[in-house]
Write a structure and sequence with these properties.
This protein has 15 helices and six strands. The protein has one domain: P-loop containing nucleotide triphosphate hydrolases (Rossmann fold). By secondary structure, it is α/β, with parallel strands linked by helices. A hairpin with a 2-residue loop joins strand 1 and strand 2. Helix 2 packs antiparallel against helix 10 and helix 9 packs across helix 10. The protein is 45% helix and 10% strand.
Length: 281
Amino acid sequence: AAKMKDEDKLYKREGILYSTILSPPQTLDKLKELEAREDDLILVAYPKCGFNWMVAVLRKILNASTGKNEKPPERPPMVEFLPPDVQEKLAEMPPRRLLGTHLHPDNIPPSFFTKKPKILVVFRNPKDTLVSYYHFMNKNPVLPSAEPWDKFFSDFMAGEVAWGSYFDHALAWEKRLDDPNVMIVTYEELKQNLPEGVKKISEFFSLPLTDEQVSSIAGESTFSAMLENSQKSHGNFGSIFFRKGEVGDWKNHFSDAQSKQMDELFQAKLAGTKLGARLKY
Ligand code: A3P
């Protein structure tokens, strides 16, 4: 990845940019055949909305509720990063599988909807998501640099970033908000009351926890606790995935004009929706 030129790191497929290295066309083609199971735990997030946070929470819930204490697998459970031969091995994985994706709902494996496994979606306000994405791209060798800031700002606004437009994703999930097998949580709500979030998520997946388990999982899943553990959980990628963990860091990055521009787009696209009302910034 280090040697690859920035302009080669992303490629476009049906109007959406993807990582050349992690999600080549053969991988995305094969993904259409992935067979979900009804008892899978599916986690969906637009990039930088809190995917790794929720992976940790879900693993802890699974361990506490089933008493199995499984070690985390070596790979993140991101299906669009799994080469075709690894995708095939998913069929041998014992239940309950944890499968994740950043893909737009129109592009996630169709069986994720037809088999009706429970799908947890995590969203975050667009301003902080943009800031987090900017820093992530600058630190992640697989993605092109996001410099300069003004250029990245306009790319994000236009949806010209890996995995596509934040607003397209949000609007597509808004349509599925009331599906019984879909639950949307937000980064901001989780920051405000993590124990409540842990409890809601465990109940959604029918993985009951005692009150003590809820509070100990929440305690182990704060930003500072996860940052401290990040060398163990993510190796050298720890500092890439755990940066600041706050609501409102956009104020340190956006110009007044950019803030206004985002407000206008948010107003036009999301403000009137149920999900939009929950994305506070
Ligand atoms: P920042 O860059 O704003 O710090 P993802 O996992 O989807 O890539 O999202 C990464 C973002 O989630 C980063 O945001 C990261 O710091 C934040 N994050 C990770 N773990 C967190 C936690 N336990 N609590 C709050 N934020 C967390």
